[in-house]
Design brief:
53% helix, disordered N terminus, 15 helices, two-stranded antiparallel sheet, 2 domains, 284 residues, Conserved hypothetical protein from pyrococcus furiosus pfu- 392566-001, ParB domain, five-stranded mixed beta sheet, 7 strands, alpha/beta
Length: 284
């Protein structure tokens, strides 16, 4: 069951939540046990009247319909059997856009209500495990979004984490496939990979070996990218030689930030108390 990217705004525009990569899906086997992938006639499908989302942006639907005409429905909707019909659990926007696009059928994952509930519990239990890598965790969150109509707040409530933590983890799904695989293979942290999310593939390929071989921290990655945006490669190499010393001094002085150039050292503190303590040490 290969699922593809869709269109969206807000939460969905930040994170490709219409995408679940089976390579990193911790509940893929469980899903196979309780799901059947079928091609259903649109006329046999009904919306869930209890679905909280009532309004759909006409322009966004038209855009999705055009995408469906060109590429087909890349991600199946999720339905449960109800009498002689199938009720939508997740994917009403895709269902509506398929109708606009003139399709007569749509790919659908068919589950029983009990199976749907069991799978949700399985995903939540997996998302709470400490041994999952960050990409598997992000994939579990994305599955809760796409197949259970949960937003970041709903996911956070179910797994006992903050909404911002859920969003930040899910943003890792925006990394290119090669970066995700390298991240998992080398056990790279979420923090060190996060600055790369908005970078082009060339920059990511340039930075990843440095993270792995030189043990770059997230701050060093951020500084490198910041310099790269402003300067040439030669200037970056020249200034990046100070990264290690900056981090060393930052820890030594317990400073908020240390910046070193060829001509100066700048130490930034969180408050006056920390500054006074350093001045006392320097005066001794």
């Amino acid at each position: 069951m290969s699922l593809g990217k869709g269109l969206g705004r807000g939460f969905e525009s930040l994170i490709p939540t219409d995408f679940v990569d089976e390579d990193f899906d911790p509940t893929a086997r469980e899903d196979e046990k309780v799901s059947k992938l079928r091609e259903l006639p649109l006329e046999d499908i009904v919306r869930d009247e209890d679905q909280p989302r009532k309004e759909f942006d006409p322009e966004a639907l038209e855009a999705l319909a055009k995408s469906i005409k060109a590429n087909g429905v890349l991600q199946p909707i999720v339905v449960t059997k109800e009498g002689d019909k199938f009720k939508i659990v997740a994917g009403e926007r895709r269902y509506r856009a398929a109708g606009i696009a003139g399709l007569e059928t749509i790919p659908a994952i068919v589950r029983t209500l009990d199976a749907q509930n069991r799978l949700e519990l399985s995903i939540i239990e997996n998302a709470q495990r400490e041994d999952l890598n960050a990409i598997e965790l992000a994939t579990a969150y994305a599955k809760l979004k796409t197949q259970f109509n949960l937003d970041a707040k709903g996911i956070a409530e179910r797994i006992g984490k903050s909404e911002s933590a859920v969003i930040n983890t899910m943003r890792l799904l925006n990394l290119p496939e090669f970066a995700k695989k390298i991240m998992v293979e080398n056990n790279l942290s979420e923090g060190v990979m996060r600055p790369l999310i908005t970078m082009d593939e060339e920059t990511i390929k340039e930075v990843l070996p440095r993270i792995i071989e030189d043990g770059w921290s997230s701050r060093r990655v951020e500084e490198y990218i910041k310099l790269k945006k402003k300067k040439s490669s030669s200037a970056i190499i020249k200034e990046s030689k100070f990264f290690e010393r900056e981090e060393k001094f930052q820890k030594k002085f317990q400073a908020r930030k240390v910046t070193i150039t060829d001509k100066s050292i700048k130490i930034t503190f969180k408050n006056n108390k920390e500054l006074e303590e350093l001045l006392k040490k320097l005066g001794e």
